Each structure stands twice: as structure tokens, then as C-alpha cells.
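Sequence only, no structure available. Ideas?
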Amino acid sequence: MVRHALAFSLALGLFVAPAQSSAQKRPLQPSDYKSWEGLANPEISRDGRWLSYNILPVDGDGRLTIKNNDAPTTYSTPNGSLADFSDDSKWCAYLISPPKVVADRLREEKKPIETKLGIRNLESGEEQIIDSVQRFAFIKGGRYLIAHKFRGADRKEGGSDLTVLDLREADSLTLGNVTAVEVNDTGTMLAATVQSDTGKGVQVLDLASSRLRTLQWGKDDVYALNWADRADAVAFLVGKDDEKKEGDLNQIVVAAGLRDAKPRLAVFDPTKVAGFPKDKRIAEFGGAALNDDGTAVAFGIQNWADKRKPDQKPQDKPGVEIWNSKDLRVLPEQRVALTRDRQRTALCVWHLRDNAFRQISDGDVQSAMPLGNYDRAVLLDPKPYLSAVTTGWVYRDVYIVDTTTGDKTKVIEKTHWAPVASRKGNYLAYYDRRHWWLYDVKKGVRTNPTSALKTDFENPEDDLTTPEKAPAAPPVWMSNDEGVLFTDRYDAFLVRPQSGVVTKLTDGRKDRVRFRFIDPLAEEEGPSALKPMYFSAFDEREKGQGFYATDATGKGKMLIFGDKRVVGLSQARDTDRVMFVMGSFEESPNVFITNTAFSAVKPVTRTNPQQKDFAWGKAELVQFKSRWGKELQGTLIYPADYVKGRRYPMVTYIYERLSDDLHSYVRPVDYSAYNEQILSQNGYFVFKPDIAYRGNTPGQNAVDCLEPAVQAVLAKNVGVDPDKLGLMGHSWGGYQTAYVTTVSKMFKAGVAGAPLTELTSMYNTHYWNAGVTNQVLLETGQGRLAVPFWEQPKTYLENSPVWQAHKLKAPLLLAAGDNDGAVDYRQSIALYNTLRRMGKECVLLIYAGENHNFTKRPNQRDYARRLRHFFDVYLKGAKPEPWVSEGVPLLRQGE
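Reply:
I predicted one. C-alpha cells follow.
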């Protein structure tokens, strides 16, 4: 494979200010940070002439920009978001939020925050503003736009106005009291559920004729609108209240022939359908999904429980939870999933032609999905393998169910990996024994099309202690089931299910370039093998990135490739123009446009032009090997004021594998504690090495990767002071930091955010945010310990920072939120108390009300400031503030 250099150096020369040496410029000061901005949400119009994007400041109000790619015309809207272009590329619509200070005040006053709708005429530039709009959508074709208004704080229930704007005729029509709206696939009709003081119903509006007809009206509830993709048919639920039961007794209504003088209504009444379980009901949250031609409906049923009669006053009820060791899921997990469990349904299919009804799944632990036109369904059944003794590795059997007869065929036994159905439902792709297999749903035949290839499809970098490694990438099905893409570590293969022919589309292995499929058109029906197929290209060794295009025969070329971060390829649907985003550590990301041949690349945005006035560091790769010989890499970021021959402190940030971020641009965000740009601006080297794992010694693995990594940096002789090395990390990186600083003499200071510190106690608690036990996390998840603590207690002790704390030489800063639902903040307290008892230097910061990642801006800024001061004290010799040197009495805290 020939690597193409970036094809737009001339264009960039016109765009980027001439480089100056960092010695001629000053580093950033905190007052400069606020001038930095981020680029977000770029979108290109169908004709390729217009681009929309958001510019987000470090803190404060952002703006939406709409720019003509071929002219200087630019429109800007403060606080605009969620921009969308009409299909005819004549209009752009977006929501407008109130200014941040207003929104913050409304939140404090617990008042609703309402958005407005902006509609921009792209030719004239005229902007129309509609107040109090909660959501909007262009209808296919671009002529119509719907705007659904807020209900109003004074109304507790009911609908609100839905305005349908005819943009071509400058006319509008308003439907009142709308609670939900759905537009059909062709964009010719919309259906709305309506709720007013006089009743509830379903109305359908024919957009061409403006004819509004009512399909349902009365006192019964209406829910779950759903159109057939290829028929003038809409389904919805009608629910009758039962004062003795929880939830409505719902019926399914399918209205077809909506262009006829009188629509045809078909009703599924569960009280009149043979075989419908008497203790079940159709659930409104399960919906009523029509198949493509409107001849079948998939829906969910659940137990219809009696309403509970309170026989005790709340204060007289015992506050008890019953935890039994035979529970298949622990109570905290059930509590987190309580709403989801209450809405769990059994999949059913109703065929309208013969009024046949079939229940597919059990509504308990099985899951199911209809295939194709709903004549078959795939069923996943974990029942044979369920046990209260679990490590998080789940098996299930896979069945194909005939939804008309109910016949069930087992197609995969005891698999962990869920199959991926083709878009038309004719095939299943599933992963087994490091290869991809295909199952023909209609013929009942399985094949292994990748068996003859001289490769396998597992992810070799997966180092979790699980029974099998994960696949390198999920399969991608093409439109009309014409093909499926399977990807190994580097390359993509197109498999034709009907013939079994396999075509290699890329050739990345010899250069260690990783190709991954991307769909720049985001086609609803899926990508087509009849059109060019696009891939991102990533060089694992040098971290270069680009885009590659090929046809179905494997004849392809590299469109663009270089030492940049090149992402976000999107194609204008109606013209030969594409958009992408490119940047690097030294270059702020910008949007570029070109043709599909990438022969005329030009920039269309210019973010952070002020950067040219400041010193800026650089990022480069460092190669090293772990102590067991694993080839690894790290990203070394230089100080912004770097001068060759001068010595600098270095802070290493660790998590797992980080070197792939070499070309990521980092804004100086003052409330981001681990922000490497601010550290660089403050005169630090910053190092981000890869950490790999083997066996079940995660702490020692970190040491055996990290020490050789830092030694490789020192060997470069670029000015890193070996006596001024710091280490930091959060969560799993916090654990690694806490462990490494206890057993390694290399580091002079450490900062560990939300760290695990004692693995046996951690093992026996919960990941409260999800409710699951940490046994799952530590055995087969990130902990990589493989076995429970009683089988190898020494392993748990030797990899626990608390049990190695007596070896600590460096001062340690710990930080945790007292509402942390991932790593209990008592883990930090355990290490703090241990170190305090030992007379070692340690400071613990506990932030009130914070979860695993701090979200309150004052707390974020406080932690970031203290982290930097801590390193300045121990790596630069700064005068310590009292909280570092001696502590602050509670009476004085908060002053």
C-alpha cells in the first residue's frame, strides 16, 4: 500500500499562520484560556454548498455558524444548536437556547428552560424565529418543516401546538393539543396523537391536500404511533383504564388505505384473540411496530398486575430488602434496572392477513427481535446458563422462530457473542472460534466463509481475563443483504452470502495500518457494495490517519493520509463533495471540503487563530517495551516554553492505552484537572504511555510497563529531569497511580483520582452506578484478576495499594466524590488512613455530592487548581499552601 502524503499543503499554507519558534512567544496565562474554542457538530447540506457547525468556548455561550462553502456568506446565531438542512438545501433550522446566565438562573429557580426555533433562508439570509419550540424536523423533500411547541408551565398534562410550515408557499397550519407526531417514510403524511380537555385521539394530515382526518377519538389513551415504510398504513395503541389493574388494557389499531375515501381499520383486541394469555396485556412502552408492507405488527406484552391496596401507613411498613444468595441478579442491580424491568415485555407478532398471533419470547430473561418482514424472529435464550454464581461472562442459545407457526430452531448453542442480523433478515452473522460464520435463515444452512483466509478476526490487543477475546470489529451488513464486511485487526473482507465469495478490500497488515469501514452518506438502507466503500485508515506505528476508498473488487486507493487526526468524513448526497475534520496536537481542528477524489482540498473554518501568538508544545511518539517484551508506545508532550538544554519536570498520565491520541488537539480548559495542555503551558513535559496486561497482576503490570516507558523518555535526553517526575490518573488510572507510587521509587509525587486501593473489599462491594457486583469488574473486567480473592489471596494483597502502602516514598494526593457510584470513596479513605497512621505524606480531597467524575464547575476548578499546585510544590519547589503543608481545620475550610 502506498502512503499518500497530505494532498493540501498549499491550501494549508494559505490557512495557517507562518510558524514562529516558541522561544519568541509567551506561554498561556490563565486569563488566556477563555479565548479558546472548540469545533462541534459539523453538517453539510445535500448540495454541498452550505456548512453548519458549532463553536463552543471553554466556558460560556457558544454560537452556531452557517457558512457558504463557495462564497463569503456567513450567518451566526448565538446559542444555536441541533442544526439541520432541508433536503432542497434552501433552509437551515436550529434550536436557540437562552444565554448561559439566564439558563443558570432558571435552573436555580427550578423553572423550565425553553428553546426557540430559528429558520434561516439560505439564499436571502432572512431568519425567522418561533418562540417556545421543543423539537423540530424537516419533512423529506424539504418543502415542509414541523415545529412542536412547549406545553407551557401552567399546564400539567395534555398536548401542545404543532405547526406545519410550508416553506415554499410561506404558509402554515397548526394542529392543537399534539402529544406526539410521526411522519411517514415518503414525507407525504404525518400522524399525531392528540389530547385535549374533550378527548384523546389520532389524526392524520395529508400534506399535499392539507386534508386532516381523525382515525380515533374518545376518552381512551392513545400511544405509540408507527408507520409502515412502504405502505400507507399507521399503527397505534388504544388503551382503556381499569381501576383494578396496573396500566391500560391496550388494543392495537392499524389504519391502512389512508389515501382512500375511507381508511381500513384492523383491530387487535386481546380479549377476543384466541391464545392471548389472560393474565397479560399489551404494553404501551413496547410500541406497535409495523413491518415494511403493513401486514404484520410486532409488539410487547407483560403481566397485568392488580393494583396494590395500601393496607398499612407508610410509617408502619418495615423498611427491609431481602437479599438471597440465589438471586440471579443482586438487589442493587435490580434497583438500578427497576424501571427497565417494569417495562420488560415479551415479543409478539400479529399477522393481519390471517389474524394470527404468536408469542416469541418469555418476557423474563429472553430477548427477541423480528427479522425482515416479520415472518421470522431471532431469539436469544440465556436460561440454560443462568446462575447466581457469575463473573459477568454470559452465554445464551440462539434460535430462529417462525412467527406464523411458532416453530423454533436452535442455530447457535452456548455463545457469548450476540448474532448480527442482515438488513433484510435473511442471514445471521455470528462470531465463533476466532472466525465469522453465516446462517441462512430461510435455508437453515450455516457456512464459515472466513475459514480459508490466512487470518483470524479476534482482537489481539484484548487482554481481559475472559474465556475468549473479543472480535476486532463488528460486522457491517450492506443494503439488500448483498454483502457483509468482516474485519480483522487490519483489513476488511467483503463476503457475498449467496455465493460465499470473499474479496479482500484493503491491504494494511504489512504496514500495520488499521482499516475500519465508515459510511459518509449514512444511508438508511445501509451502504451499497455497488458504490465506492470508504474506510478510515490508522497507522498503528506512527499514528497517521486518513481515508481510503475501494470498489467491491478490492481496487482502491488512499485518498488522504498523513500525520494528522483526520476524522468525520461526510458526503453531500446530491453532489461530488465531501467534508471532514482535520487537526493535530499543534493545529486546532478545522473542517475541510473536497471532492470524492480528494483532488481539491480546502479549509472552510478557522478555529483558534489566536494560537499563533502563543508558545505551543509538540507531541511525539516514544517507543518502548514492557519488561516481558511487549512492544508499546507513548505520547510525549513538550513544554510550551521548551528550550533545548534546559531541564523540566515531567508528569505522566496513565490509564490503559493512550498513544493513539498522539494527534489529538487539547484545549487549555482550566476546569479539566488532567489537562495536558495547561501542564505543558506551565513548563511540564507530559507523558501518556500505553499500559498492557498479562496474567492476573494488574498493579505489577503497570509498573512493568511504566518504568521502562519513563526510562525510554529519559534516554532521549530531551531535558526531562529524572528527579522531578510526577504521576497521575483517575479511576483505573487512579488505581495504577496509587499502586505504582507505593512500589516504585521513580516518582516524586502522585495524584490519584477516585482510585481503587484495597481489592478484597472492592471485590465484595458494588459498582453502584450500574448495581452489578465488583466481582464482575475485578475477575473478567478491567481488574483482570481472573479468580476470586479466596483462591489467590496473595494476588489480591500484592496488587492492592493499601497493602503496599508501607513502601510509599512519594507524597500522594487523593481525590474522590462522596457520591461515587463506581469506586466507593471509602477506598480513598482506607488508603489515606493507612498512610496517615504510617506517618506518610498524603492529602485527601472529598467533594460533596460528586459521582465518579466531577460535574460541578466549582469543584472541577478547585480540584484542577489543587492538582497543579500539588505538582508545583513537589516538582518545582513552589511554596506550599497550608492545605498541602499542614492541613486546614474544619472551622476554616471553605473560607
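Residues 857-876 form the longest helix (20 residues).
Hope that gets you unstuck.
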